[in-house]
Design a protein that fits this description.
mainly beta; five-stranded antiparallel β-sheet; five-stranded mixed β-sheet; 0% helix; 58% strand
């Protein structure tokens, strides 16, 4: 495996109080010329964020999604999987989950870099979201 993971902060599960007005912001930043990734709920198979939507920022390409928003199916417990493709050597991704708490403050729940020293690799990263 040629994919390395550099963790700045990593919670194995993110607890979210939906009734209290809390929500998450997912951010994927890519140094690749063509990003190939998807963030999927493993239980519902819902794609939450992917390279199929235009990036919010262009340099570097940054994809952002608030969750939940209208139409999202929140489960009491979700297993989310970030699938990344590293087409060429030196490609990298940064994945962040920001948690907006009921008091209006933001807290970092996950902040991880992924880099690949060779091309043609795929990597899966998973974490849980628990809602009440």
């Amino acid at each position: 495996m040629t994919v390395t993971k550099k963790v700045r902060f990593e919670a194995p599960a993110v607890a979210l109080n939906l009734r209290g007005g809390e929500f998450l912001q997912y951010l994927v930043t890519s140094s690749a010329s063509e990003s190939r990734f998807s963030l999927t709920d493993a239980i519902t198979k819902e794609i939450i964020l992917s390279d199929q939507v235009p990036p919010t920022l262009l340099t570097p390409a940054t994809y952002m999604r608030l969750w939940p928003v209208g139409g999202d199916r929140s489960q009491q417990e979700s297993l989310l999987i970030l699938a990344m493709s590293f087409e060429t050597a030196g490609n990298g991704y940064t994945f962040q989950v920001q948690h907006r708490q009921a008091n209006g403050q933001w807290r970092v729940a996950i902040d991880v870099d992924f880099e690949c020293s060779a091309g043609g690799e795929k990597y899966l990263y998973s974490f849980a979201v628990i809602t009440e």
